[in-house]
Amino acid sequence: MRYLFLLLLLVAQPMVAVLAAATLSPAGASDGASAESTAESPAELTLIKEEACAVLAAPDEIETTVTPRGPGFVFTTVGGKGQVEIIARPSFQAWRVAIVTVFNSAGLPAVEMRLATGCKPIRSRQITRQPDGRVLSITDLGPDFVAIGSAEIQDPPHHFTLKAADRNPNNPRIAIVDTGINYTLPDFQNRIALDIDGRLIGYDFWDDDEWPF
């Protein structure tokens, strides 16, 4: 599930700049320069879920580590394809929701699943990345980890027609907290805030890039 805090700064006409939030990778994770796309099969994800459930069933037998999202437990999958991080809330001893993240070899999230009490999957998704680590698409997965519908393309390329120098700096600036913006829509085309080089002003902390779509 996305943990997004998207900030839209409407600067001129009004113009829009965007910031969004992030699922953080474990310490030492790659910056994405050599990221890979990882496609885990439903059988592999089921095995990972079972491994995570075994950890959650015996919380007193594990040693948690400090992660950006709170106390967690990290282990390597049986197949050795990547690391898995478990965050249990409110605690490992009395958890109600567990967030299980499977990282690819570059240390970037490839699959995320949420488990409810009884280790029942309540939401899962698979993340496909471009060679540079940027998110290409996100696919929702069912309780059996089979894809539901088609992949949702992320951050489509777009060129803004109105340059920053041509916009009125006296127009009001508006900040919006949200989960994203479709900057390809005509209504936003000439209202997105740009820097002097014509780049969108903002950041997507979820995808860790400058395209908060």
Would you mind describing this structure in some detail?
The protein is mainly beta. It has two domains: 6-23 and 157-204, no CATH class; 42-153, no CATH class. 9% of the residues lie in helices and 32% in strands. The strands form two sheets. An eight-stranded antiparallel beta sheet has the order 3-4-5-6-7-8-9-10, covered by helices on one side. It starts with 5 loop residues before the first strand and ends in a 9-residue tail after the last strand. 30% of the residues are buried.
Average pLDDT score: 75
Uncertain spans: 1-37
Give the number of helices.
2
What is the element string, with H for helices and E for strands?
Answer: EEHEEEEEEEEEHE
Number of domains: 2
How many strand units? 12
Helix content: under 10%
Proportion of β residues? 25-35%
Order the strands across the largest sheet as they lie in space: 3-4-5-6-7-8-9-10
Radius of gyration from CA coordinates: 19 Å
- What distance separates the N and C termini? 16 Å
> Which outline best applies?
elongated
Q: How would you name the oligomeric state of the polypeptide chains in this document?
A: single chain
Structural class: mainly beta
User: How many strands, which pairing sense, and closed or not: the largest β-sheet?
Assistant: 8 strands, antiparallel
